Structure formats: C-alpha cells, structure tokens
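the two lines:
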Amino acid sequence: MPLLTESKVFIRPDGPDKVTGSGRYVADITLTGMLTAKFLYAGISHAEIIRLDVSAARRVPGVLAVLTHEDVPERRFGSIADRTLFAKDVVRFEGEVVAAVAAIDAEAAQKALDAVVVEYKPLQVVTDLEEAIADGAPLVHEGWADYEAANVERNGNVASFTSMTRGDVEKGMAQADHVVFGRYVADATHAAPIEPRGVLAQWEGDRVTIWSSTQVPFQARDGVCETLDLPTNRVRIIVPHMGGGFGGKCGFHYEAHVAALARVARRPVRLVFSRREEFIAPDRRREGMIIEITTGLKSDGTLTARRVRVLLDNGAYSADSSFFPHMAAMHTLGPYKIDNIHAEAFSIYTNHQPSGSVRAPTAPQTCWALESHTDELAAVVGMDPVAFRQQNCIDTGETGVAGQVYDEIGLQECIREAVSGIDYGQDLEDDEAIGVAVGWWPSFPGASGAFVKIDRDGKGVITTGAQECGTGSVMTLPILAAAELGMEPEDFELVYQDTSVAPYDEGATGSQTILNNGRATVEAARQIAVQLKNLAAKKLEASPDDIVLADGRAHVAGSPESAVSIVELAGVAAGGELLLGKGSGTPPEYPSAVGVACVGDQGLSGWAGPQFSCHAVKIRLDRETGVVRVLDVSAAHDSGVIINPIGASGQVEGGVMMGIGQALTEGTVYDEDGAQKNPAFLDYKLQTMADAPPIRVHFAEVHTPNMGPHGSKPIAEAPNVATAAAISNAITKLTGQPVPRLPMTAQRVWETMRGGGDG
Amino acid sequence: MTEPITLTVNGLDYPVDVDMGRNLLSVLRTEIGLTGTKEGCDDSECGACMVLLDDQPVNSCSYLALQAEGKSVTTIEGVMPADGLHAIQRSLLEEGGVQCGFCTPGIIMSTRALLDGNPSPSEEEIRIGLSGNLCRCTGYAKILAAVIRTASDN
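prediction for all of em together
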C-alpha cells in the first residue's frame, strides 16, 4: 500500500521559504562585524614555490588576517592523505589555495591578495593520462609513498588501482565468434550547482560555529577537527538552505580555512565563491577518462568474455577518489551476464583540478562507453539492441560480473517499460532516431541516527543529521515517521543539518538518506508508537498489542469506535513520560561477491541494493551542423518501492536533464598547461528549459528485501547514469558510427559523420 | 565614489549611497537587505538574480544600481500578496517544481513577467520565456507544468 494516497498533495515543508525568498542560504547570512574572505590561488598548474611573503598583505588597511601553510597545523587529509589546507613548497593545480585573507570588505581583501609576493619555479605539467603512467613520467607527488592511505598500491602517478578477475578471460575470448574492441574518451564535467558555495565561521571562546553549504556536515566537521586539531564537540556545522550540490559540495572543503581566518581575525568571516571559483577550485570535478572495452560474443549474442581498461584523471589530489577505479571497473563491465571478465582501472595523478564524487561518480562516462559498445555488439551479430540487452542483462536470481547473485531486481521491467514508453517501433523521420541504454548503481548502507519527539499538541519534530540539498529529505522522513504513527506528514517539522544537535549521518552522499536515515527515523518513530500504544491501552482498557495507530487516532483492532486521538495521548504524555524516540539501527550488510579476485578492493564488488535503469531517447540530428536535439525521453527505474513519488520523479527528471547536458554540451576544456579554458556558464553550457524534452518516468517498484524502509532503495544518483549512453546510441544510428568522445558536441558529431573525430 | 540615490523597491522608497559601479543585485542584497534575489554566476547566464524593472525582467547582476533610479523594482519579496501565496508560488509547490530553491526566485520573476505580458502563452512561449533561468535540480518538467497550470488558472 502506498504511504501517500495518490490524491494527496504534500508540499515540501521548506517550499514556502523557497518560493517567497525568505529562506536563508549561506550567502544570505550576515553577522555583526563580519569580514569578507578571499583566497589566493596558485594560478599555475605545477610549480615549486620559491618565495612566499605575506608581510605587505598584512599591512593593507582593513585586513585582519592573512594565512598561509605556516599558520595552521601541518596535516594531510583526503582518502589518500595527499592534501593540505594551504600549498607548501609545491602547487599542483591552478585552483590550489596558497593564501587566505579576511578583510572589512571585498576591495580590501583583494588589495591584500594583490600584495602577496609569491614566486614560482614552473615544473613539468602532467595532463595526458597515457603519458602520466609511462616510464619516466614526471611525478605529481614526489613523496607520495609517505602519505597515509588504506589499501592502495603505490606506483608512479597511479593514485589508486583496481583489478578484477573472474573466470578465464582468454578462454572466453577463444570461445567467441566475434571479438569487438572499442575506445572511448570522456572529458571532465562539473556538478555546477546554481548556488556557489559559501562558508561563514564565528568563534565564541574556544567553540566555532560554521554555516556551510556542504552536503556532508559531519564530514566537514571532522575535516575541521582533523586539520585544526579540535575536538568534535567544539565545532558546530550548520547548513542553512542549500542551493544544490550534486556531489560537488560533498567532502570537506573550505570550512577550516574560514574558521582559521575567523580565529585569527577575532571576527566572523564569510567566504562566498564566484562562479569561476566554483569551477576551478573545489576537489569535486567529474573526472575525464579513457575507456577501452573488448568483448567476445557468440553469433547468437551470448557474451563469452569482457576485458576492460579504464584510465581516470584523478587530478592533483584524492579527495574521495580512491574508490573510483573500483566503481569504474564495475560500471564498465556492466549489469550483464558474463562469466569471464578481467578489468583494470587506474586513477592517475595529473595537474588538473582534483576529481571527486559528482552524482553517480564514474558511472555516466563508463555507462556511455559500455552502452555505445553494446549497441556495436548487437550490430555485429545482427540483433536489435533492445533484444540483445533483454537476452544479456541480469535478472532476479542470476549471477552478475562480480559473481554476485541478485535478489529481486527489476532491470528487465525497466527495459520493457522504457522502450514501451517511447514507442520504440514508431515510424521515424530520416533525421530522427531512438537510442536505448541500461545503467546500474549501488546503494551504500551506513551509520545514521535520528530523534523524534511529539509535543503536547500532537505535533512532531524529527531531529536528524540528514542533509537536504533539494533532494527531498524534508518530505521523505516525515512521510516515514507519519506512517509509523498513523499521523500525517504535515504533522512533522524537521530540525536538521546541525552537527551539534542531531546524531551522525553521512549526509547527502551516495543517495543514502532514504536507506540509512530513513531506517533511523522509522526506528525512532516506532519507539513513540510503543509509548502511544501503552497510553492508549490504559485509556481504552485493552492490550497494547491490540492498539492500532491510524488517521490521527489510536483504536482497538476490530473496534474503530473504541479510540482516542493522538493529540489527547500527547497531552497526557506531556505531563509524564515524554514522547521521545531515538533510532539508528543496524545497516544492511554488503552481499558477498563470489569468485572475483580483486586488487585494490574497496569492498564494493558486492553491491547492496543495486538500482537499475533503462533510458530510451528520441533525437533529431541536423546533418548540416551536427546539432543534436533530444525530442523525447522515457526513463524507467528500479529504485525499489517509491516512498515520495513527486520527489522521486523529480530526481529522475533532473538526472536525465543533467545527462543530456553531459551528453551534448557540458565538457571542461583544458589548455596545454592544465588550466580550464571554460570556467563560466557562457562557455560551459547547461541545458535550459528551451532544450528540455518531455521526460516520461516509470518506476519498477520491486519490493527490495533487507534494504530501505518499506522495500525502498535510493534514487538520486541513478537517473544520472544512462542518458548520455542512450543519446550516443541514437546518434550512432544516424551517423553510422559512435562519436568517440564525450560530450558529443555538434562539432564532434559533425566530424564523426565525415569520418574524423578526435578519439 | 558614492552617489546618493533613491531606489523604489516593492513599492517602498529606499535612500541609499551607492558606488557608481555597484550592480543592482548587490545593493538589493546588502544595503536594502532583501536577500531573496540570488547570485549564481554574476554573468547574466543563470537568471537567479532576475528582478522586474518597470515590469520587465532584468538580470540584476548586470544592471547598475544607479540606472534603476526612478524605476519601479520588484523582487521576489514583492510577489506575495497579503492574503497568501501568489498563484505561481502555489503552483510551483504543488507541482513539485521546487527542489533546492536557489533558482526559484528568478524563475518566479521571469514567469510573472511572461504571464503579465502574455496571460495565455503556448508551451513553446513558456520554454523560451524561461530559457534565461538555469535550474540544475528539476529538469524543468515540473516547473513547466507549474507555469502551464498558473496560466490556465488565470
């Protein structure tokens, strides 16, 4: 039974703040005496710092703090501990922070930056992935053998590495009637939330409060504690309203810089990024890749073997990218039945901006490559690409590439519904085509907690560490709590995004809120349900086991007239044992993957609660110009049972639209020195409403055992996986061969039509 | 160098001293204290800073505050009538056209300008009318539905 009736319109609780302009984002908050922060960036991609002198900057009128590496503890951080708050000795990408200032206004801060004396000795820049791992390549990190890191190999510029083997790939290739090879190159892209990030820090005594536009407040807090040597209970991170993240605001960013400035200046300090800074500085870019896939198959379409090699542009530092090779390997192997596989994936240090989690990290690029390749496989054996996928994709009870046997899954339903939604066999104009692609994405069980209370008037508050960057926690958690207590979601308010108030949560990362904080909220609400049933049982002279909570009342099972309202019970509780619940619960375990041998294993071969998708797109190609227009999209998703339909379809529509951008217009262009050439919306084009096609959404609501509440699975990242791949397959039907580079810009499409293309 | 001017915002007059190079967005957000208008790019590309100047939509990041003197400025804070939400605001909420909300004020201002000039726009006219407002969350589908609904309720 759905948790919300279909006719129910549940307005997101933070919605009125957002449509009236009264909701405050970080850049909207000012404190008395607040200073403006600005950073001095390297502005050069690889160089030795031979002189750094901030004495003149400190003398600029109106400047209250100027900091460099000398002014903070010497600490390295990151998934590989290769990063420091401020550059010391060497800068490794253009957006590396060399110095930070706090001044009474932006003009004074800029004057201080201009007065910093810094001299560089340029070092050889590493940008090409193949050259970076060749013998004798200059090293991005000379001393990285000394950095702390878990389970990574140390080899030249290879930051992290995975190899996966199952079966015998040579034997499988030998059994094949056809062996097909494809090479694909993806450019880097950006999360590009419309709100540039902001951080505001204020000290009172030895405690600091930091308002930050972070998706992961607890991780941000821990970063501050680690780099500034502070205990967790002295650092409070509050996230006010937040203008989108898409992974770009995951991780620990500039909270420590701003806190350090505020401590020295003895004033509140606020940092707000410009759009250019938002592009060049954060360690959260979607990495460029080179993807090579070789597949053996029989003439009847059976896949006998797959070998993949993926090179990922790690950039200069490893924010959270050490698990990316493993993810890239799994995604390049794909949701297919193949018994013989071998995958190698390398995340390679370069002098580009660091890579980090952007919505479904590694998946859109690898899915684009694999699914373009899959259409080629179908063509080689003369099969329809949809039938080819129906034959080869995994289904319930079948074994995937890593040896995992999947529980109830809905991939086949996704394929069926996506192609039916777009009317796959329709007559098309000769400049139109339909392309189809499948995708998958794991779920990430983890620790999380929530408190729920009901006050004397029967109104509830959920206090949670969950984060809300637009994704809908403010809807989903009240829906879940209300369902446990027979109340309405409108009866609940959320107190959230405050590390000193709420229990730990991983934040808006890995699409994990529904899975982990959902579990915690349900558990907390269940404790209150027990309290309410006990109170009602006394009142109604029945056994607590016979009490049912529904429609705002507690009644005796089978006797709906024998009832008491929850408001009345809340009034009773307010004078005695208060209605308080706390929840955390045990996260579901990761399933084991049998028979796969991994080097550099980040524990992600066995996928908990894998989500599946199939996207079908109809496009029109202007053969004169290479311009592709997406006319129609049908997206089918298995994200388990859907808890919040309007939020879930909103995630799919947004993910698809981001995928269209990545397919056609979004790509970072680097100059030969490793600097971004298009760090602005003028040259890095997001899709507009004029570009937006209709998007039909279907949910294959497979009740998923042992995962999120009510058989649910996460949703936010999965829609950003398969769209670019589906567009590629539609384009190929019109150009005759795939565009070998992402984004498939008009120029690249045009060149492909003429037999060129810069793979 | 600052210049004393009077800006008329949401029907109220505000005397302010502004530097001649200051943009309208910055003066609205700081001196006047209305932070509902957002800065997303400072480049007229994202539309988050959209306000109405004598009922015409303008990217306030790229408009000098001085130029706004003598004109009537409407920001998101001036949209809501006394008796509750404006129809555009209500439709956006009910259709699910709001996620992170950062583009929302700009979307509402552009929609209001569009519907004031053309109460029954076609879908194509809506798509073009709102093509200066970037939204990264919604894929535009539910925003489009909300504008269509607002227009049909007119």
